[in-house]
Write a sequence for this structure.
């Protein structure tokens, strides 16, 4: 019976119980046959005893047989045991962890933790040292009961923190309550996706990013041109989404590029066909025309394109010729210095007829 049970536990744990059995005969069988958290108490006690050296193996064997769990762990730890420790290790049931887990959990709990951190840890499906590190790293508004179900590592925790920081800087009137609610909705989205996955669904929607729940509150930068009767500025997330639905394009997915001042969009009102104009921000040139697209697809009529270009020129926004467009992309590229040296050499060595006016 005991031999079969021994195969279910890690070697370090069995060796520790064999050592204790030398001093208190039969204690190994008692612990392995016990229900509840006694196996976990023994694992934590041995981990503490080996780490701190405050009690001998003989004393530990006697404590495990005759003392309360909390007294055993206090003696082995050599200091006051955090009140939450025993409930947390009891959640592990028969899954015996490595000694560093018990030591790390006790050390983590010995520092003051917020109620939200403890609540999230109680709801965690599985506790690990990584779980504890995540709870220490996360922005306080992100620490909720279901957060640990979709934040599996520190990398994802830092990504979520970065999104929260960005939202705080770009959202008008956003509150911590708004963020908590959005994170809860994000957790629910992941929960639905996991359920569909485990039920064998061949397709399920990828959960959105946190920022998607608060796009309507993002602050758009000032437009690079003045309002005019000829154009409709897409100067809010709602307008971008509306234009995406009306013209059946992906404008609704480009909101962040506007907030980051990388792009700007407006609609040129034309009796024949509206035109969606994309401006690209290319420092030091600034905004310039990147693309013109007729609503519903198709080519933009040459006279309409000319009218848009004239309008933009009046606001200091250039429409660059193809060769200059390529030049800007080269200057912005990873090999910028090498390119500029090559361009300078070409311009000095070129024949007079090859030099651009």
């Amino acid at each position: 019976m005991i031999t079969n049970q021994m195969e279910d536990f890690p070697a370090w744990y069995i060796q520790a119980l064999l050592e204790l059995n030398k001093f208190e005969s039969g204690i190994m069988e008692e612990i392995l046959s016990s229900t509840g958290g006694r196996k976990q108490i023994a694992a934590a006690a041995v981990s503490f005893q080996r780490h701190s050296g405050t009690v001998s193996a003989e004393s530990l064997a006697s404590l495990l047989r005759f003392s309360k769990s909390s007294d055993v762990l206090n003696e082995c730890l050599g200091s006051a045991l955090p009140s939450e420790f025993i409930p947390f290790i009891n959640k592990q049931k028969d899954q015996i962890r490595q000694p560093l887990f018990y030591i790390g959990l006790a050390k983590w709990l010995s520092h003051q933790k917020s109620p939200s951190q403890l609540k999230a840890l109680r709801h965690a499906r599985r506790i690990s040292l990584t779980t504890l590190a995540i709870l220490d790293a996360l922005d306080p508004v992100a620490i909720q009961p279901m957060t640990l179900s979709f934040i599996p590592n520190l990398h994802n925790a830092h990504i979520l923190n970065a999104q929260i920081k960005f939202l705080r800087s770009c959202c008008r009137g956003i509150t911590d309550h708004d963020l908590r609610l959005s994170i809860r909705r994000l957790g629910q989205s992941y929960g639905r996706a996991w359920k569909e996955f485990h039920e064998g669904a061949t397709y399920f929607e990828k959960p959105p990013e946190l920022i998607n729940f608060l796009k309507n509150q993002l602050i758009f930068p000032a437009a690079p041109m003045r309002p005019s009767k000829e154009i409709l500025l897409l100067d809010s997330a709602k307008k971008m989404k509306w234009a995406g639905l009306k013209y059946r394009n992906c404008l609704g997915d480009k909101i962040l590029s506007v907030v980051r001042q990388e792009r700007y969009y407006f609609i040129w009102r034309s009796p024949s066909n509206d035109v969606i104009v994309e401006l690209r921000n290319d420092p030091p040139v600034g905004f310039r025309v990147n693309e013109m697209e007729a609503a519903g697809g198709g080519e933009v009529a040459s006279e309409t394109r000319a009218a848009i270009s004239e309008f933009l020129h009046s606001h200091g926004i250039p429409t660059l010729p193809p060769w200059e467009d390529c030049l800007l992309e080269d200057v912005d590229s990873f090999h910028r210095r090498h390119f500029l040296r090559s361009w300078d050499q070409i311009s000095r060595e070129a024949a007079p007829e090859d030099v651009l006016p």
Remarks:
- The first strand starts at residue 231 and ends at 233.
- The two ends are 94 Å apart (CA to CA).
- DSSP finds 17 helices and four strands in the chain.
- Residues 182 and 214 are 7 Å apart (CA to CA).
